[in-house]
Design a protein that fits this description.
Blueprint: H1 6-21, H2 24-40, H3 44-67, H4 73-96, H5 110-125, H6 135-143, H7 156-163, H8 171-203, H9 211-242, H10 260-266, H11 269-280, H12 290-308, H13 312-331, H14 340-362, H15 366-378, H16 393-413, H17 418-423, H18 427-444
């Protein structure tokens, strides 16, 4: 059930009503049933696997809580290996055994809640978190439906703390959450999905496209993947807020970053911070010399690449980002620019490098991806013949217009809380904006006869 579908809208509004119509002591059970129903819509295997995984989290948490004063290393290692093994069987067997794999059976959201399960066990073992004595709470943490399919990877401590507090109906909080979710739907349905139509029309005929047209597709895809995932994050954070949960921010204007290191502090923040806290720092971080610091960076980004997908192109993408960080540190490009002009040039260079790397996301055949990059970088014919690929200039202009709007909004979001600012506007102005957004939804959205919402890109990860 896609979060941009009308079925999900009906499901959420009914769930919101049930959630608040019952008293606080019953809310956990209502939310557990809501999560159970939502997960079941993705198939019985997804439901069974998650029930088993949440029970394993509960059992390991209780055991690690009892043994952490002694040596709990073996118990923690076993727990991590078990969760990683489940992820490897369903997601990565195809990478090593092309003719014997189970990826077609992979439970939805497995990459996200596997990391959540590991972080819970590690935090309990290290004494940063008390183990939950209720299996229901562990189920709620792993199955929380707003973030279930594509994150953010919310941390257990803040989630459980909020779960145990009284959550009452607050119109202001619900309105703020719905505005955030509506903006996410707008990003996805009106902009990202329409950009995807243009991008695919070029990528599917890349051999007949000029180098300039490939650059158009690459640049459009940079914005499409950003809008797609930012849309899901906004929807997830907004819906969670409606239910009284504060989920960590996942994006902070990443294309305004001056270097790759800063980009990863702004892009998919929940994943990058998870990799830092649970892999990079335990490996030694930057505390054990320069060579080991660079080794740790490469390991982290290789894991990041593999986490995103069971393909060598994702491994190559991770290696590319890891090497870029090392080069930046060796050349001191990771330092802040001294003036505005240099800063703008660094932002532009960083955006181009990130855009090049996204080719390995879009094209999972590494040989084809390299061939496309070779054509775009080394044989750059900048003749852009849109008629060959049946793209009208009007379609391209609409896409560029919306990209310009997003760039302006990102610059503003980098300076202020746009939703907080918007809520302070006059009711008439807010109502007018709602009408414009809804009308744009109907006119430029991809709803219509035979409509089937495109999956969010990160759902596949």
């Amino acid at each position: 059930m896609q979060t941009t579908s009308l079925a999900f809208l009906a499901f959420f509004l009914f769930s919101l009503f049930l959630y608040y119509v019952f008293p606080h002591r019953i809310q956990r059970y209502v939310l557990a049933l809501i999560n159970l129903f939502y997960v079941s819509t993705f198939g019985i295997l997804s439901l069974i696997y998650l029930l088993i995984a949440s029970f394993a989290v509960y059992i390991f948490g209780m055991r690690l809580s009892k043994t952490r004063r002694r040596n709990s290393g073996s118990d923690l290692s076993f727990a991590i290996c078990l969760f990683v093994a489940g992820l490897a069987i369903f997601k990565y067997s195809r990478l090593l055994f092309p003719f014997l794999h189970f990826s077609w059976l992979a439970p939805v959201g497995i990459s996200f809640y596997t990391f959540k399960a590991i972080s819970y066990c590690v935090d309990v073992a290290k004494g940063r978190l008390e183990a939950e004595s209720s299996y229901l709470n562990c189920w709620l943490y792993l199955s929380f439906f707003p973030v279930f399919t594509a994150g953010p990877i919310n941390r257990p401590k803040s989630f459980f703390a909020r779960l145990k507090k009284r959550r009452t109906w607050k119109p202001q909080r619900v309105e703020t959450g719905l505005i955030r979710a509506a903006f996410g739907c707008f990003e996805k349905v009106v902009i990202a999905d329409n950009l995807l139509i243009l991008i695919d029309s070029i990528y599917l005929q890349w051999q007949s496209a000029s180098g300039g047209l490939l650059w158009v597709a690459m640049l459009l895809y940079s914005f499409q993947i950003y809008l797609d995932f930012d849309a899901y994050s906004n929807i997830a954070i907004g819906l969670s807020r409606c239910l009284g949960f504060k989920i960590e921010e996942n994006f902070k204007t990443p294309y305004l970053a001056e270097n790759i290191s800063e980009f990863w502090r702004r892009w998919h923040i929940s994943l990058s911070s998870w990799l830092r806290d649970y892999i990079y720092i335990p490996l030694g971080g930057n505390r054990k010399g320069t060579s080991k610091k660079y080794r740790n960076l490469i390991i982290v980004f290789l894991i990041s690449g593999l986490w995103h997908g069971a393909s060598w192109s994702f491994v190559f993408w991770g290696l590319f980002h890891g090497l870029l960080q090392i080069v930046e540190q060796l050349t001191h490009l990771s330092k802040k620019a001294s003036n505005s002009l240099i800063r703008c040039l660094k932002i532009l260079l960083n955006f181009i490098l990130v855009t090049i790397s996204w080719v390995f996301f879009k094209v999972t055949n590494i040989h084809q991806a390299l061939a496309m990059l070779q054509k775009a970088l080394f044989f750059p014919s900048f003749k852009i013949n849109l008629s060959v690929l049946k793209i009208s200039p009007a379609e391209l202009m609409i896409a560029l217009f919306f990209i310009s709007v997003i760039i302006i909004l990102d610059i503003l979001r980098n300076r202020t809380d746009m939703i907080k600012w918007f809520r302070k506007r006059n009711l008439i102005i807010r109502f007018f904006v709602y009408i414009v957004l809804f009308s744009t939804f109907l006119i430029l959205g991809i709803y219509g006869t035979g409509y089937d919402a495109n999956q969010f890109i990160y759902i596949q990860f």
